[in-house]
Each structure stands twice: as structure tokens, then as C-alpha cells.
């Protein structure tokens, strides 16, 4: 039996949805995109053009909800299926868009460079419990204008896993689409086998910028999946109660669904988010707070009530180093997310309020993900009945170490983490150097970098990707890509 956790009953879910729908119809949403305002007006919405404000209707919301796919699949750069976002299937992906990286030697943060991103891509390609990569770091050695496309380029060149990404400008979308088409061979092939998911974030409360809303309709027009990342802050940009925050999150996410589905009915979406409580003592947004995790699990239940696949930023920490707090918050979030059945769990590797990525934490989180994935398989009988023969063998042999039953089910019943997790007795631990978690994690990073095998993507495709990226870089005054990117 698969273990699960729930925070809401159907009656409360229905009340939250009803209130959210009323907000959209009575208060509306601020949308700074004339194309979308015109589209909403064509479907019967009342528009205040001067204030860039749209008042939705119940019919528009119902029509949009009716066309959202209840599941979709994702494929790696070689065209192999890696994800099926459906029901309670769980997949992990690293946190995205970190502006700093934690340096192992100094234990201080630094601005990432191309080589940091290259090392990240090489490591994530080999972490078996994290199913996708994200554009996790923002390299500071390229112009901001190409930052989005450059990250996607490096990911597609170096790692075979599908990508969770996004664009901070409208102009970046075109080249990011072309990079994906270069991998698949055609726009039709890309629609049939999606390679990336774009994160699109409304601004709380109930606001869409020109950039983000344009990303939504651009993705819809090209059948590129979108995850909606609503970010209400309890007690600051949303009511202080968890239910009030869920109403805000639901309204913002529904507004995104409407924009997406009216642009192109049937566009795949993930009902996602990155809400948090607001800690008024420090003026911070703790992603490791238990209430933040409760909100994530609860809005996932609302998404599942609609029948949609879900996403959540939850398996991450606000700690500044790879310490006990980092392990506590990340593992608790991963466990709750998996029990709740969040389909795409975002966060591994992340520290410091979603701003810092750590390769050492990433390899630790890979083991946390492995334990969690084992846990949700639950407990089931594996030739345990009748039990008498097994115990007769145990009494006779004094152990079951090499019993047929043990050899048959050992690997399926027990998850064996890598060396980043210490399970040796004290004497052995001391004899092997008495290493700390931080040291073992770094040793694992070095091992993965050394044994990295280049992506099996054909050289001709890699050349096409590089030509596209170099052409884009030249548009913004960068004649050569940074050393080490290839």
C-alpha cells in the first residue's frame, strides 16, 4: 500500500476554490499584456484597459478548466520517456535560477560562472534519484540578455535529462524554443515529445507582468508545458492564515490556466507554486518552515481535486551551509511532498531561501530522494507467507545472510545509499579518516566529475546548438562563448 498524507477535506477544498473564483470575477487580475487582455475580452471578460485589469467570468474559468490535460509525459534529449505526470507519481528536480553557489573550500557564497554550471550539469546527469535537471545556476560571465538561453544551451549539451527552465525576458523565448527544436528535429517532434517545462510566475496578489504572461502564451502556442509558480506570502502579500494563502494561490493559478488554455486549449500544465509564510522577525520567506510545506502539500491537493498534475518548491532549505538544518528541512520537505503525491518536486541542492545552489548538497539530496522514493513504495508481502520455512532456516543456519529469499529481495526491500551517507561503525569510520558529511559529499562531487561521460546527443546536433548559441551571443556583443562551456 502506498502511504499518503492529506491536509484538506473535499468540503474545504471546494470552499477555497469557490472563494478563489469569486476573487477573479469580482476583483479581477492586473495583466500587463494587451494581447491577453484582448483575448480575454473576446471571451466575455470585462476589461479596464487603462488599469490593465481583467475581470474574469465563471464561464471563462469553466471553459479553461475543461481543456487542461490530466497528465502528460516528458522525454530526455535522446527521446526516451523519463516522466509521467499523473496520479501520485513522484519525480524530483533541482531548484532553479540560483544567483550564488556555495564554494566548498571557503564555505562562502560566490557568483556562479560557466565552469560552475558545467560541473553542475555533469553531476546532475549522474544522480539517479533526481529525474530531471533544471537551469539551476545563473552564470555571471555572460550578458544578462543571453543568461536564460545560455543556461538551457549548457544543459542540453552536457546532460541528457529533460529540463525545468524559464525565461526572464520575452526575447529569450524564441532562441530557447529553437534550441529545443534543434534537439528534436522539428516543432512537431518537440510537441510530441516535450523536452522542457517552463516556469511562469504571477506576482502576488493577482498580477501578471508582460514578460511572464507572454511566456505563458508563447509556450501554449508551441505546446511547451508550463508550471505555474504562484508565490503568495502568508501575512505579507496574502492573508496570514494558511487557508487564506491557499485562496490567493488558487486564484492566481487559475488565472494562469485561463491564459494558457484560451491561448491554446490542451496545453500541458503543472499546477505548481512556491508560496511561503513571511517570518516578520527577520523579514524572510522561509521555505523550510513547516507551514510553508503544509501550504505546498495542500495546494497540491487542490490541483489533484481538479485532476491536474502538480509541482512544488518544497525539498530545499534556508540554511547557509550544508549542516543539520539543511538536512532536516530538505528531508522533511521531500518526505511530505512525496507522501502528498506532488508530481514534480523542486528543490534539491538549494540553500538560503532559494538563492544558492550547492553541488555537495545536491549529492546529499539525491540520497534523500532515494530514501523517499523507497518509502512511497510502501510495504508489501514478498513470499513471506507461509513464514514457517523461513524461520526454520533461520534457526538451522543461525542467520539468513545468504538465504535464497534474502538474495532475491534484498535490493528491492532495502535502499543502500552511497558513501555520502555514513553507515559504518565508529571504528571503521575512524580508520577510514573520520570524514564529515561535508567532506564525503565533496568527495562524491569530485568522483562524479571525474567519471562523467559526455552526452550521447549526436555531434551534429551539438554543433547546431552551438551555432544557435554563438549567433545569439553575438547579437548582444559577445563574440565568443566563455572558455570551458564546451
UniProtKB/TrEMBL annotation:
Keywords of this entry: Methyltransferase, Transferase
Sample GO molecular function, one term: methyltransferase activity
N-terminal signal peptide: none
Taxonomic superkingdom: Bacteria
A Gene Ontology biological process term: methanogenesis
Family per similarity comment: Belongs to the trimethylamine methyltransferase family.
Record's protein name: Trimethylamine methyltransferase
Organism: Candidatus Fischerbacteria bacterium RBG_13_37_8
